[in-house]
Amino acid sequence: MSQPQLLNLDPQMLxxxxxxxxxxxxxxxxxxxxxxxxxxxxxxxxxxxxxVLKLSQPAQPVYEIIGGEHRWQVAKKIGLAQIPVVNLxxxxxxxxxxxxxxxxxxYGADDTLxxxxxLKGLGDVVELQSFLPFGxxxxxxxxxxxxxxxxxxxxxxxxxxxxxxxxAPEPPAAKAPKTHTVMRFKVSLRDAERLTALIARTQKAxxxxxADDLTNAGDALVHLLVDQFEVKASAGAxxxxxxxxxxxxxxx
Length: 252
Fold this sequence. Notes:
Elements: E1 5-9, E2 14-15, H1 26-39, E3 45-53, E4 60-67, H2 69-77, E5 83-87, H3 93-103, H4 112-120, H5 125-131, H6 136-144, H7 189-206, H8 213-234, H9 240-251
Parallel strand pairs: 2-4, 3-5
Antiparallel strand pairs: 1-5, 3-4
């Protein structure tokens, strides 16, 4: 692989790759746009150089995006004339795909207490939500981790076990009842875009914004499906009790 080159290029000179698996929700796209407007495009888009397009005059290289497709899309949307790009040269598909996966990966994890303190110095929940990829519940969980006082834990200052005290472990606390589960399914890219847009529109129309992003999206999808069931049932396409029977059969 040749030495990477740092360039400033017109976004129109770049083209996306066909294998990108990173899907960003409409809500996080808005936050990414606000982040770039707020702090600039400080993270370059990673590209490789494809064979020169000889049909153009003068001949122009084709730059295929390996990492940063969503940053590139936002840059075009807000009208940036040039964006920072790291060109890795003419690398093969396998190397390009490896780097693409690595660009979206994260090897470390935040120390929760330190991260909470860091975020507190950057703004309140409303401000942070406008440009960070966190929902209200995510930030509440992060901040609550830093608000635990030792007095609230009711720790006995005498750590030595009293005479005759049992070594038996305390019974585990009862778990809160499970109310949601994560489902996974695969749809075409076109259907994924349409479904994402429908879910985002339903979330906004129905005010489904109180929980985390996954729960809000799931509630919106259920709302859409129930509406369709009721419409078809009213048209005589099927009876709602048929759906209940099918659900009971699956659960059995």
